[in-house]
Amino acid sequence: MSAPRWVDGNRFTLLENGEAYFPRVFEAIAAARHEVLLETFILFEDKVGLALHAALLSAARNGAKVDITIDGFGSPDLSPAFIGALTEAGVRVHVFDPGTRLFGWRTNLFRRMHRKIVVVDGERAFVGGINYSADHLADFGPEAKQDYAVELEGPLVAHIQRFVQQAIVEGRPGRSSSERRWFRRRAPPSALPPQAAAGAARRCSSRATTASTRRTSSATTAP
Questions:
Q1: How far is Cα 177 from Cα 151, in angstroms, rounded to an integer?
Q2: CA Rg, the chain, in Å?
Q3: If we measure between CA atoms, which residue out of 201, 51, 194 comes closest to residue 132?
Q4: Comparing C-alpha atoms, which of 55, 37, 176 is closest to residue 117?
């Protein structure tokens, strides 16, 4: 693989902690007209996660194509209502390796997706270490995290955009990217969005029919 080529003509803005980062990135996402690409390790359903949720819905309602990739270990407890509202609005939710539990312990701890990237309309990008959780704000208390992100404008944004788009196409960050798998692990069909619930019901019916057919065939051929 060749070394990356230096790209001139970019503008960088350093954003310190959630106080500087969240208003900038949420404003950019909510105003998107064409495309939003987002990758993150942690997305919690707290005041920060809900603000991101609102911005993503705004972008989708503007007609933007919205893809988000979250890590299945870092973001394990989002509610069906939270995810369902996004998918019903047209947001594509990709989950990197949801993982399983073995005797109550999570597996695949070391195969994670830690990127924190946002690309808006191919014109602005945000890259850094800040997740979408309230512990990146000072009012969280003594355990609040210190971290940074960089806002980028210029030709480098196109490179970042292509990287995230290609990652989605190749399935590297989203081998388990269907929202159906996310919901199957967390909720019964009654809690699913209508389309996902119907699909789950069809699959259950198909499995029951197959099992019944096998039992009938076995009884017919038994000596």
A1: 27
A2: 21
A3: 51
A4: 37
Residue ranges, the chain, pLDDT below 50: 101-105, 107, 110, 172-223
How many residues are there in the chain?
A: 223
Per-residue pLDDT tens for 147-188?
999 999 999 999 999 999 998 887 644 343 444 344 444 443
Cα(first)–Cα(last) distance of the chain, in Å?
A: 65
How many whole angstroms separate alpha carbon 160 and alpha carbon 153?
11
Among left, alpha and beta (phi > 0; psi -120 to 50; other), residue 98 is alpha
Burial of 169 (0-12, 13-18, 19+ CB in 10 A): exposed
- Estimate to the nearest angstrom the gap between the alpha carbon of 26 and the chain centroid: 15
pTM, two decimal places: 0.73
Q: Cα–chain-centroid distance for residue 74?
A: 11
- In the DSSP assignment, the letter for residue 76 is -
Domain ranges of the chain: 11-187, 189-223
For residue 195, which amino acid is it? Answer: Q
CATH superfamily of 11-187: Endonuclease Chain A (3.30.870.10)
The amino acid present at 36, given as its one-letter code, is: V
At 127-143, the pLDDT tens digits run 999 999 999 999 999 99
